[in-house]
Amino acid sequence: MPPGSLTILPVPGLPEIERAADLAAMIAEAVELFDDDVVVVTQKVVSKAEGRMVEIDPGDPAAKRRLAESEAVRVLRRRGDLVITETRHGYVCANSGIDLSNVAEGRAALLPEDPDRSARRIRDGLRARTGRRVAVIVSDTFGRAWRRGVVDVAIGCAGIRGIVDLRGSLDALGRQLVATEMCLVDEIAGAAELVMGKASGVPVAVVRGVDPAALGDGSVAGEVVRPCSEDLFR
Amino acid sequence: MPPGSLTILPVPGLPEIERAADLAAMIAEAVELFDDDVVVVTQKVVSKAEGRMVEIDPGDPAAKRRLAESEAVRVLRRRGDLVITETRHGYVCANSGIDLSNVAEGRAALLPEDPDRSARRIRDGLRARTGRRVAVIVSDTFGRAWRRGVVDVAIGCAGIRGIVDLRGSLDALGRQLVATEMCLVDEIAGAAELVMGKASGVPVAVVRGVDPAALGDGSVAGEVVRPCSEDLFR
Lengths: 234, 234
Fold this sequence. Notes:
The structure is a homodimer.
Chain A: E1 6-10, H1 23-30, E2 38-42, H2 43-49, E3 53-55, H3 63-70, E4 72-79, E5 82-87, E6 92-94, E7 107-109, H4 115-130, E8 135-143, E9 150-158, E10 164-165, E11 181-182, H5 184-196, E12 204-208, H6 220-223
């Protein structure tokens, strides 16, 4: 590979994830990892492994909305049975991130209680099994204000900084850059979706070649979630 | 490369871009392209090539804000000299996308007049020079509501669909997916930034391995820009 390039590998062949599944063991079995790899795991398999499934009445069209409201600390907008909420993690998303696709009929997947902790557990498990120093991102699919369509973003991370702060570094003309805080974990989560989306049932991808300067302690809760007090749009 | 994987290559070695520069010729010179490659070009070099540079008083701290307001159709929020605006293209972003980094002192780069058209021109130029059928995305760095940090998104595209609509397709359990309209062009723009950000002065990247189902006619203006009338947050 040319220097500076990046590779994204889908990790197919994982079994259906049940409660208490050891995701790290399954991933370590399915793919060879190297130091500085970033392993992206979709929220749904994390939620399944962590037993974050609840029952929902498939015959009640308002059941999802009521469940979403019960998972929210704040409802920002409503349109029909869609609610845009702020979750207790501080994410703003549709229906508190509750998901009915790729789960059994009559069941719904809630978000992990603490996705940064979920990411740390998987990272530690991968380290123990492979000896490799990898980063882990837990991703989910969110809509956005002002733009159509959804993209995958990071809801938890470990071993990688949520935001890489380029303030104070110089641009190509030697002038100081101002306020260029790149949210690399969101870009990586979206990049991973590009290989996951091609085939359904691929909930894990490996991103190889991420700038090592981005690797280190980080969290989505502490870095990426924007507190309401500094948000111009809440 | 394993099947289903994706590679992102930075394109270094482009000269400093001047007004009327032939970007397609420069890119074709700098990198070997293949059918179905997606070439991501940052807004700044497109704006420079299209002569979208204006003078700005470097001693006046409010000059950028005034220029941003003159480029806006609507000001959504203000904080000090920062304005969040809606541009005439329909993008919602900081300071109407006006950029003072990596441009000469006393100059500011405006957004291209029609970034979809810019993308089409570059795609057509690459086709003429290389014979390859490639897609082109013009990217820019935008902030987001609710989440800290900035990410690269698509402001124009050609040869690729802005949104890939998975509504009506089936999930892995054979149930119908609802409203999964992925904004692949934004995910690709962000992915490309991961290799551009590592070294300053790399304004172009090639993304190889994008799902061919995403390739075809598309535009950011027609697909990704959310009209104010359907936006819950304007």
